[in-house]
Amino acid sequence: MIILSIDTSCDDTCIAILKIEKKKIKVLSNIISSQVDIHKKYGGVYPSLAKREHEKNLVPVLKQALQKAQNKKKFKKPDLIAVTIGPGLDPCLWVGLNFAKSLSLVWDIPLVPVNHIEGHIFANFLSKINLNFQKLLPAICLIVSGGHTQLILIKKIGNYKIIGETRDDAAGECFDKTARILGLAYPGGPSIAQEAEKLLISDSQIAIKLPRPMIYSKDYDFSFSGLKTAVLYDYKKRSKKIRTSQKYISAMAKEIQQTIIDVLIKKTIKAAKDYKIKNIILGGGVIANKELQKQFKEKIKKEIPNSLLLIPDSNLCTDNAAMIGIAGYLNKNKALKDAQKIKVNSNLRI
Ligand code: KG4
Ligand code: ZN
Questions:
Q1: Which mutation among 141, 145, 323 tests ligand 1's pocket best, with the greatest number of atoms within 8 A of CB?
Q2: 228 CA distance to ligand 1 centroid (A)?
Q3: Distance from the CA of 231 to the center of ligand 2, in angstroms?
Q4: Which residues are within 8 A (CB) of 74 and not within 5 positions of it... i.e. 6 or more apart?
Q5: Are both 225 and 162 inside the same structural domain?
Q6: From 42, 167, 190, 200, which residue has the greatest number of CB atoms within 10 Å?
């Protein structure tokens, strides 16, 4: 089966083509056209600009995806189209959905609506384990992106329970907003990780201690907006000379990153222990953070040594359409031949 998948939920225009045969998944192409340079000057995603860029990019991205997948051979029509219908930015989602509807109509093939968060979970299918993933359930899944921070209990595919989530900002949003305070480029996550790495042992004299919001709360919820305020407060109290110095920026970046890591790991392991669930699945853009991955592996080995930790390849943590393709495949019973009825839902929950 050939699946063409589309994601325009935020600021990346993504189209992928997957071939699934005998439970083996092959990603034939996975094209991502990033709009980072356009949104950089605003320090975040500007929805109307993102919509315009998706409109411009979809046709060239489709052309690239088809060319790469077909390897210059004769064009073969896909069997199914999968498209993200939410959560995400409403105008951006509509651009992707309408494009998908047009392809579905012209090619006369069914269209399956996909939840973006389910896509982030299934990104784990694409690396190494393929469809054997089902054997790893039940699992506790942590999804951390620019718009979401959720702990999800996955009993089986299609059976999800959100057991905890952020009460305000998402962790990725916190990276983006605090990076902006420090004058670092959007997206903030990779910028902060890069600055944190520059911190030398000898620089540790700039002592910064940020609060770990809700780390000991009895539930599985998160809160990151106070962290942003604490960073702003510390930044403002420093002299201009200090706060613009490399030492300060690196020390602050490291502390922001560590705070977010501490909270995410603590809550995820608590959920696994409380629910007596062995396997842990990670997904979403923030999971691309190498230090987070390293510390997750170390902590799990120490605290719940029989657990298995699944992390997608880094390029599959951030938004892409291959993950939407696999989610579409697993939801293919929801595909509609008459796709015109499908609508977006910017607040769609899993
Ligand atoms: O999943 P994603 O690509 O898009 C959404 O669905 O939101 O996640 C984007 C978020 C951004 O907030 C970005 O700053 C963060 O993921 N991010 C990272 C890293 N790479 C991307 N955060 C920390 N470390 C990274 N290496
Ligand atoms: Zn995402």
A1: 145
A2: 16
A3: 25
A4: none
A5: yes
A6: 190
pLDDT, tens digit, 9 for 90 and up, residues 25-78: 999 999 999 988 888 887 778 899 999 999 999 999 999 999 999 876 677 899
Query: By percentage, how much of the chain surpasses pLDDT 90?
Result: 86
Ligand nearest to the CA of 190: 1
Confidence grade of residue 131 (pLDDT, cut at 50, 70, 90): low
Sheet holding 139-144, edge to edge: 159-165, 149-156, 139-144, 279-283, 309-310
Both 125 and 176 in one domain: the answer is: no
- The residue-averaged pLDDT of 325-329 equals 96
Q: How many domains does the chain have?
A: 2
Ligand 1 contact, 43 CB (< 6 A): no
Pocket of ligand 1, candidates 291, 292, 318: which has the most ligand atoms within 8 Å of its Cβ, to mutate? 318
Shared domain for 184 and 274, answered yes or no, is yes
Tokens of 95: 């651009």
